[in-house]
Amino acid sequence: HVPPPLSARAGSPRAAMERWPGWHVHVVEHHVAYLQLLCRAAWRGQWQAFPDPAQLQRAAEMMMAAFCCVMTMRGAADALTPVTLLGLRRLSPWLIAFSLCCYAWRLARNRWLRQEWFEFLWQFCLPRKWTQCSICAEQVHATPWRLAKMPCCGGELCWACVRRHAASVVDDARPEMRCPLLPCRSCLPDVVVCAALRRHQWSLEGLDPTGSRFRRKRRAYEKWALTCGLAESCSARVEDVVHCPREDCEHMWVLPRERRARKEASEPSTRWNPQAWSLGRYVGLYSPVVEDGNDLRRIHCPACDHHSCLLCGLPWGDGGEADSHDGKCCLEHRSRFPERSHRTKWAGAKPCPGCGVRIIRSSGCNKMTCSQCGMHWCWVCLADWEPAHYGC
Question: For residues 306 and 316, what is the distance between their CA atoms, to the nearest angstrom?
Answer without folding.
Answer: 9
